[in-house]
Amino acid sequence: MRFFSDNAAPVHPAVMAALAAADRVDTAFDGDAWSKRLDAAFAELFETQVRVLWVPTGTAANCLALAAMCPPYGGVICHAHAHIQTDEGGAPGFYTAGATLMLVDGEGAKVSPDAVTALVGGLRKDVHQVQPHALSITQATEYGRVYTPAEVGALGEVARAHGLGFHMDGARFANAVAYLGCAPADVTWRAGVDALSFGAVKNGGMNAEALVFFRTDLADATLYRRKRAGLLLSKGRYLAAQLLAMLEDDLWLANARAANAGAALLATAAGDRLLHPVEANEIFLRLTADEAARLRAQGFDFYDWGAGQARLVVSWQQTQADIRPLADAILAL
Amino acid sequence: MRFFSDNAAPVHPAVMAALAAADRVDTAFDGDAWSKRLDAAFAELFETQVRVLWVPTGTAANCLALAAMCPPYGGVICHAHAHIQTDEGGAPGFYTAGATLMLVDGEGAKVSPDAVTALVGGLRKDVHQVQPHALSITQATEYGRVYTPAEVGALGEVARAHGLGFHMDGARFANAVAYLGCAPADVTWRAGVDALSFGAVKNGGMNAEALVFFRTDLADATLYRRKRAGLLLSKGRYLAAQLLAMLEDDLWLANARAANAGAALLATAAGDRLLHPVEANEIFLRLTADEAARLRAQGFDFYDWGAGQARLVVSWQQTQADIRPLADAILAL
Amino acid sequence: MRFFSDNAAPVHPAVMAALAAADRVDTAFDGDAWSKRLDAAFAELFETQVRVLWVPTGTAANCLALAAMCPPYGGVICHAHAHIQTDEGGAPGFYTAGATLMLVDGEGAKVSPDAVTALVGGLRKDVHQVQPHALSITQATEYGRVYTPAEVGALGEVARAHGLGFHMDGARFANAVAYLGCAPADVTWRAGVDALSFGAVKNGGMNAEALVFFRTDLADATLYRRKRAGLLLSKGRYLAAQLLAMLEDDLWLANARAANAGAALLATAAGDRLLHPVEANEIFLRLTADEAARLRAQGFDFYDWGAGQARLVVSWQQTQADIRPLADAILAL
Amino acid sequence: MRFFSDNAAPVHPAVMAALAAADRVDTAFDGDAWSKRLDAAFAELFETQVRVLWVPTGTAANCLALAAMCPPYGGVICHAHAHIQTDEGGAPGFYTAGATLMLVDGEGAKVSPDAVTALVGGLRKDVHQVQPHALSITQATEYGRVYTPAEVGALGEVARAHGLGFHMDGARFANAVAYLGCAPADVTWRAGVDALSFGAVKNGGMNAEALVFFRTDLADATLYRRKRAGLLLSKGRYLAAQLLAMLEDDLWLANARAANAGAALLATAAGDRLLHPVEANEIFLRLTADEAARLRAQGFDFYDWGAGQARLVVSWQQTQADIRPLADAILAL
Description:
Four copies of one chain form a homotetramer. Chain A is an alpha/beta fold.
């Protein structure tokens, strides 16, 4: 059984059904009935007016958001382990026409207000130094940690104080909200977030993510940027339909809860092997090469994560019954 | 009935079936079994070694090809009515980091060797003028015209003589090959084409196009560019599966033949109203505002194309029975 | 004697003297006393508040202005023979991160309000087409033609109506003002111009041009862009001093008047050979290959300008006595 | 007396004389006699064939070199305190169209082969991570440290092993060579350097730096990039003449030796206040706020460099007699 990535999972049956239901003649690009329902559907979820664009990848959502907030000559503050820094092949530089990622450290890939304040305070305010224009955080983080509404709010304050746009990479936003049990609004716009990459693909989607603008004035130019990036799919209804299916009856939360529950099961088994508290659907644990080999010999696949460490990711599709054998195997090490 | 765009059509049932068949756990990005079969499948179709990348849009395919051939300080020669010039929102400028489209005229949106030669000949070879590095043509053209193998070959000669990369935007490549009845190789690499955007979405696909490199050395850097552009979808198997389904039993040709046949029916009805010979699945015809209104009153939808002109596009899905009423209505004007 | 280009001329003695006077210890970059005087000096000249940045080339001035007005996904309307289109090596694409030059025709390289209106009117207002964000004209034009204040004002109206920034490439602004005899303000901000590339190098300078913002809000970001482009020279006082010297006692106008007068002398000699009315310091005339050879045999150097045509440029330094032999030789053909 | 920056110094009289000598009619841009002599003059200095381009700033030289070596999707390894990272306003991102600076640490702003090896070794070789294409070091470093030929050679080996281009930012190359007493070739191409930004402005020039390509194949495209960046000055002879004057009778070395000697005098006075060994013309020393105030009260100006630290820079123009008062004042603290 694979614990490589939630991207390895298949598409949720409700999403497949939605694709079938959308499989009819309609207007091209985003002129179709499904695309036109997105703003209202997300407005209901977030309890405020929003502008929503579908895109096919999280990288695209993240980078369109950054480009909307940061000019080419500016910088975006993020964690040194942020996905936009380590795993998007330089896409932020492409979308922003060369802006700079300005890196801060912090436990569990979490950005702290103090780290942002220190970075900004250490800059000369002159043209020789790149000045920050945006702050980007990942919820849940690259190490599966979750920001509370208060933590996001504190970052929102810092962002506002320094005139920074505030972006949240929510590739696993669903897992974070499932963990927090809060309203989606509490951990986004009410806490100062301007734009959210709302992940769907890791959570049961096929190839649609939502870029949600709480600062709705950023959307118009982004429509042009999306087209210019080759991201305006001809048959947009097949993306919009996926997103609407994810929101229907809170499928997005149900899927995330399932994945989180599976991860919690593994976390319990891992005990003090854990490198980070498990708050979403990722587990990082100490595992010797020998131990890793023994697990793999039993049919469990996962990534090594540096020497003596491993990462396990649980998907929406894996049931407690699927996962228990791995939990038992870890306990038996 | 809609004759706006072949993008309005639904997805072919065989493609939907292929998506269902691919809906299982596999490796993320392009590490899955379907993605790995693409090179071989297209190599068989084109009778030569190729490197193939799936992308979600034709704009992405076109612009990744151009970026592979043209440095930021260079130019790409294309027709003034080329899709990359008129309908991609400036995407070539984005992907090439600011290269220039160098426009030539020509009937039916066709580029002629003489026009290329004249443009190149009119340039000073100094750093003050942008120098061309690539040539891009559209097959079938934006006015539904088809280049013969000999015509493409003549352009290939000119491209080679001036050291230009040669790209073919084949959003409707299938329609062109269906019209020509030639081997796909004859009108591409055997005629000097280095890279082809092989269209699938307009021809029954959902959201996958193929970027085919005949100059296989261009592919490696393009893999990086694709990721950097946010175009490396997490669950790539759902794109690769669409493309493989299109090739299976030559579905791509069958669909294109159906669309071309429908267009031919309308062309016959249009008679001397035609603005361009109908060689693919698009019909451009003279139509007064009053005539257009009469057709629309009968339930036929289509785009005006400037004053007194209209464009009709037939999709793979529209049968002769679907189309005959419009043909009759045109005859009755 | 050379009539190739006003760039071939040496530096005016007053400018050389200013460089010598500035040759002392002062603050680096633009923190020096000379740089700090620029805003006030140009404000006096233009009778309004301005922000002025020195740059070493006209291309830099032009492209920084365009980047201040046009986002990467936008377009800049200009004449098909505009210097930014034909002779800046694609610099606008570099500085704007890939914006598009949208070309109009017009006699003598002049842009007309109707041409702008027609171009804008012919665009669909959707994301598939690049939308214009700025208008750029050249004063005097690439064919030595001069826009009157009324003509500039009419373009300013059109620009405002369509929400376009309005840039004037004034590489030969001095020659135009010398011809018009108007206040510099009349043909710039009073006529709607937002930014002016105020040329000095062709007019007796060494390597300093002034980018003058009448819309002063555009200057702040441009300071960052100038640094980021490698254009913030370490010893800026040597540029600022040149510009101040040009303004001192209206040296810029005196130099331009001298060059214009020389050109007028040649224009009279050329008579009906002239291809364009001579309003500045450039002469375009019909000249057979044989005639050109005869002039060159007498020691006169100039550029061919297409078949059977030639361009002569008179510099600030060439006296009537220097020029009369060429005038006589032309008359004698 | 100012110890802010060597950029504050005036222009060396020999350079001013060279400007006067070049002040005559000649061909525009880089077609003049002075520009044409550059390759040969630098070839003699470096004992090998080179291609040399004048540019007006060190930032321009650095970034053109990086753009010649690194594609938009690649990375450039440099020190976290490298000038290209900290003080060029994001220019590398502009010139490379968005490439990433990949930072390493190291004492005195020196890059070590081990640091490069560790960075490269820590990367996954996949498209999700930016891959390095070039290495850039500064000679002398931002803290006034000098790489020996052996140290550069070791870096050159590492660069070659990983297929990296190798750039040297030589804003203070003269000071480094003056310190080392080696042949310029020993610390550049013989040690694997592909391109050198040869600084002149800090060392007595006005506004000309030389970009020297030892890998001469990189020059052709750079000519286009230089023009496209607005860096091709119209009257290039005034830049070329400065560079030729610097090479004449090794003025560049004489000036650097003078500055280094002044710095050595201050270093001796500073004693164990020194934060870094003084090998070029910069001194970094511990200085309390009170001590700094006392020095300033005596008329000595310099930059604070973080809390309790200060930077002093000695220029070519400051004599031992100029400097001794400061040395005495430091001793007297």
